[in-house]
Design goal:
Blueprint: E1 2-4, H1 8-14, E2 20-24, H2 34-47, E3 53-57, H3 70-88, E4 102-111, H4 114-120, H5 130-138, E5 141-149, E6 160-161, H6 164-168, E7 183-184, H7 189-195, H8 211-217, H9 221-224, E8 229-236, H10 238-254, E9 258-265, H11 269-275, H12 285-292, E10 297-305, H13 307-315, H14 320-326, H15 331-334, E11 345-347, H16 351-361, E12 365-371, H17 377-389, E13 393-400, H18 404-410, H19 420-427, E14 432-439, H20 442-450, H21 455-461, H22 466-470, E15 479-481, H23 485-495
Helix pairs in contact: 2-3
């Protein structure tokens, strides 16, 4: 019935469970509460919700009960399982859980410009080493968060004051929770960071009333504030992909979706059964699986404001007959294929499913990128913007003068070439920016974004590429990248020795 969680890997695996997880937290020396174990077994048997109700020793806490109050535990679990049933049925939305009472309204990860650093740190501009500080900040990645106080303040155990009368009550006295509310002392973000002992890693500007201050750091803040962009996985099944791909993609973009990633994929039988689980009790399930594995499907990563709900509404019911009768404007009805009874478009059921499905169908890959010394600071910023807009995540970054020893870690493949000395001369003229870029198909996409090696050729064949826009000649061509994943990983291992790749695409 229970799982023992005693390492990070098991914890991460447990957190993939759908529904409610009941966690019994206790000190190692005293062990679990035996009075609760009987109750947990009873609830597990009576509720019969193996997919929604899980028990574990040791997520995000949605409720907590202090003490072995069996009636309260019983009532709370039943209530939460009922909520999970409604969430699974689409009858309610999972409430947002706000840790420490703060809400992140906007965030970005990027190197700050000189103007942004001077703007944010204007209060220390008169210090003698300020210019060195500005230089340091512009050479490294920063995380920028716009944070506000949540409407619902979450009590913290450290700052909660429990009524003494409540503490002395016998836990079996009442069937309903009667404890008086916990009183939490309101804390600023700076105070909270100090309590968590992480304030030394953060610089905070509090009580900002003018959004212009924020817009210097996040230029689109007014536009994106309050907008909930959601990424989902969509799939065109083989028959639709074979016959009307262009029409579908145009319709998707007309509806305000941005296509972040796309790839053709031939599904295995197991993958097809997972994606078609809702039809497994239908007479035609076998023919559906046969069709799903008959040729390539087109997998898409889509993003839009309220993307999950909008996509579900757009594609319509899972059954073509129902769609044609009740929702003839849905994509299910518009793009029905022959005698196939099911919706030829698939979409993630939840944001949690979307995250897992995207990770599965578009596993991340790392590549190494280099911005050369001749590129000006303004051009660097433009290149960084292009990198972000193309969907890359800048995982790590450092500015470095590439000496012959350091350059060899990146250019080891051409070390014996006649022009290698010329390459070293170009790199010796100033500092270069070396980055780890991460996304699906990162090596190929970075090479495509860079463009042909010769900027003149790039301007003819790929005018929107980085080398076409910022390259001077074949040596001063603005950027460099690995040719293969093997080369990328070897370079990353040499340049970023502390980097531990996770969830790498293997093929």
């Amino acid at each position: 019935m229970q799982a023992v969680i005693n390492n990070q890997s098991l914890w991460d695996e447990m957190m993939q469970n759908k529904g409610l997880t009941v966690i019994d937290v206790y000190q190692a020396w005293c062990g679990p509460c035996k009075a609760m174990q009987t109750l947990f077994r009873k609830l597990k048997n009576e509720l019969n919700e193996d997919e929604l109700l899980h028990f574990a020793v040791n997520g995000t806490i949605v409720a907590k009960i202090q003490g072995a109050n069996a009636p309260l535990v019983n009532q709370k679990i039943i209530t939460l399982v009922d909520e999970e049933r409604k969430i699974a049925a689409g009858e309610m939305v999972r409430p947002q859980i706000i840790k420490a009472g703060f809400v992140i309204e906007a965030e970005d990860k990027k190197p700050l410009t000189e103007e942004q650093v001077k703007h944010f740190y204007s209060q220390i501009a008169d210090q003698p080493d300020f210019e060195d500080f500005v230089s340091f900040m512009t050479r490294n990645l920063s995380y920028i968060l716009v944070v506000s106080q949540g409407k619902e303040k979450q009590p913290s155990w450290d700052d909660s004051e429990v009524n003494s009368e409540t503490e002395s009550k016998e836990p079996w006295d009442e069937q309903e929770e009667t404890a008086k509310p916990l009183r939490m002392k309101s804390k600023s973000l700076q105070q909270y960071l100090e309590i968590q002992q992480i304030s030394q890693f953060c610089d905070v500007e509090e009580n900002i009333t003018n959004t212009k201050f924020i817009e210097v750091l996040i230029p689109d803040f007014k536009k994106i504030r309050g907008i909930k962009f959601e990424k989902i996985l969509a799939l065109l099944r083989p028959a639709l992909f074979n016959e009307r791909t262009e029409d579908v993609l145009n319709k998707i973009q007309d509806e305000g979706f941005k296509i972040l990633l796309q790839r053709q994929i031939v599904l295995s039988e197991e993958e097809a059964k997972t994606l078609c689980k809702e039809y497994e009790n239908k007479d035609y399930f076998g023919s559906v699986i046969e069709n799903m594995t008959s040729g390539p499907s087109l997998a898409l990563v889509l993003v839009r404001e309220n993307g999950l709900g909008y996509w579900k509404q757009l594609i319509g019911p899972s059954n073509v007959e129902e769609a044609k009768e009740y929702l003839p404007e849905s994509l299910c009805a518009q793009f029905a294929i022959g005698g196939l009874p099911i919706n030829q478009l698939y979409g993630s059921d939840s944001l949690e499913d979307a995250e897992r499905e995207i990770q599965y169908f578009f596993p991340p890959q790392h590549t190494v990128a280099l911005i050369k010394p001749h590129v000006t600071q303004e051009q660097r910023e433009d290149i960084m913007k292009l990198i972000k807009e193309t969907g890359f995540d800048i995982t790590q970054m450092k500015e470095i003068l590439l000496t012959e020893e350091e350059a060899e870690k990146i250019y080891f493949k051409i070390k014996g070439k006649e022009f290698y000395k010329d390459v070293l001369d170009v790199l010796a003229k100033g500092t270069s920016l070396v980055m780890i870029l991460t996304k699906w198909n990162a090596v190929l996409d970075w090479r495509r974004l860079m463009g042909p090696t010769d900027p003149e050729e790039a301007r003819l064949l790929s005018p929107d590429s980085i080398r076409a826009q910022f390259g001077k000649n074949i040596l001063q061509n603005a950027v460099h990248g690995a040719s293969t994943m093997e080369e990328a990983m070897e370079t990353i291992g040499k340049m970023f020795e502390d980097f531990i790749p996770e969830n790498l695409e293997e093929n």
